[in-house]
UniProtKB/TrEMBL annotation:
Highest taxon of the lineage: Eukaryota
Repeat keyword on record: yes
Gene name of the record: Dcdc2b
Record protein name field: DCD2B protein
Residue ranges that the Swiss-Prot or TrEMBL entry lists as coiled coil: none
Doublecortin domain location: 13-95, 139-217
Keywords: Repeat
Species for this entry: Calonectris borealis
The keyword Metal-binding is assigned to this record: no
Length: 234
């Protein structure tokens, strides 16, 4: 390339990239250098390595509205983006680490909703949950190694209706196969009732398909984020 061509090359841009659906990932700074990355695909490959994505990154989105970025020239210096594979963009509050968007509201008839809780930065803080008469578990989506587990906070004082819990899991999991019909432990054994749920344990939401034994915990649970954002179901 001639010296004139080098002089005319666009200046490097600095962007921050988050992992799609991961509210705990702090983001990684990536330099967009069009002298180094001749194609958008080459840049996405670099992002895959930089954020340690479990599968190849194939799409970038704006964090607030989920607008897809189509090419290198669309990236803006100093801006933030969300990296995803082929899965759909997951709406979270990426720019404020440790918080998620509210999921629904209570109407005048008192319909149940999901309530927002902040992240507990230390596992010792889970004692506050016990004081509130609550316990939590984390749920993976069957066969999905792209989405982190979603936390589920339950009240000890309210009788747990299994059908109602499955309906709630159906809304939260949004499985490609449809409704959640069963909940399994990581070894594949099925949970038959709420009394079998153990505080702090991990489970897998499964539809009509067979349970898929995959390394959910090893690939989707960062070592430095053992404590979770919690949501309460009333």
């Amino acid at each position: 390339m001639s010296s004139r061509g080098l002089a005319m090359a666009p200046p490097a841009k600095n962007v921050v990239v988050y992992r799609n659906g991961d509210p705990f990932f702090p983001g990684r700074k990536v330099v967009v250098n069009q002298r180094r990355f001749l194609t958008f695909e080459a840049f996405l490959n670099e992002v895959t390595k930089s954020i340690h994505a479990p599968l190849a990154v194939r799409n970038l989105y704006t964090p607030r509205h989920g607008h897809r970025v189509a090419e290198l020239g669309d990236l803006q210096d100093g801006c933030q983006y969300v990296a995803a594979g082929f899965e759909k963009f997951k709406r979270l509050d990426y720019l404020n680490r440790g918080r998620k968007e509210l999921r629904g509201t209570r109407n005048s008839e008192g319909t149940s909703r999901w309530l927002f809780f902040p992240i507990f930065h230390s596992c010792r803080n889970t004692g506050s949950l016990h004081a509130l008469g609550c316990f939590y578990c984390s749920v993976f989506r069957n066969g999905d190694l792209l989405s982190p587990p979603f936390p589920l906070l339950l009240s000890k004082s309210t009788p747990l209706q299994w059908d109602a819990l499955l309906a709630t899991l159906t809304k939260k999991a949004d499985l490609r196969s449809g409704a959640v019909n069963k909940l399994c432990r990581l070894d594949g054994t099925q949970v038959s009732g709420g009394e079998e749920l153990v505080n702090g344990h991990y489970y897998v939401a499964v539809g009509n398909e067979e349970y898929k034994k995959l390394p959910y915990f090893e690939l989707l649970v960062p070592q430095d984020s053992a404590c979770r954002t919690l949501w309460y179901v009333d």
